[in-house]
Amino acid sequence: MELIELKNIYKTYNIGEIDVEVLKGITIQIKAGELVALMGASGSGKSTLMNILGCLDRPTSGEYLLDGQNVGKISSDERAFIRNKKMGFVFQSFNLLPRASAVENVAMPLTYTTDSISDGKAKKRAIEMLSRVGLQDRLDHEPSKLSGGQQQRVAIARALINSPPVLFADEPTGNLDSNTSTEVLEMFRQLNRQDKITIVLVTHDAAVAKYADRIIRINDGVIVNEVPCQNESGFSTPVDSMQINEDV
Fold this sequence. Notes:
alpha/beta; Rossmann fold; six-stranded mixed β-sheet; four-stranded antiparallel β-sheet; 10 strands; disordered C terminus
């Protein structure tokens, strides 16, 4: 089943009197439960494409179907609702509230949901998510008291708090060292395998892209190729283990 389907997507920005065409007829399909890497150099159009996939922006033309719904031309409020209910986001810079604890950061998306949930239930859910990523001993720590890897795991827990069917990770290892990057990428792989979460990794790095099932390469606003990625042998962490070294 296709969870995400883009049909002939164009995106043009108006800069003064100049039209800059960033995406030029993108057509891709991503199946439910797939782990896909969207790979391209800086300026290739991958960030613009990620913004459209994540309902952060709208295409100039073309059709975007998400779980069968045409979301390419819906209103800003409708896009916000879909982001909250169906999507999780992990960014390179973590985007954590500096004066909030790990639990408070993770619970934050629940304050924007249309579902009625008490503070107690929100906290319990946040603790469950932090325990899931191995941070049960860091619940009350603010970001400044956490390592880069721990901050990114808080961000992952926050992205999972609403149980979204799809997770977008935009250069998620850009601020991490190589060992910590491996731990985080293996966590994405485990979440994909265990929970069947559809994950889109946006990256310029081939070492990150190899963790995906399929690599979609974009250059100058067009898809240049799509290739399957054989990666099972590259994993050192068992798929049935979600515990990550707490020193990370």
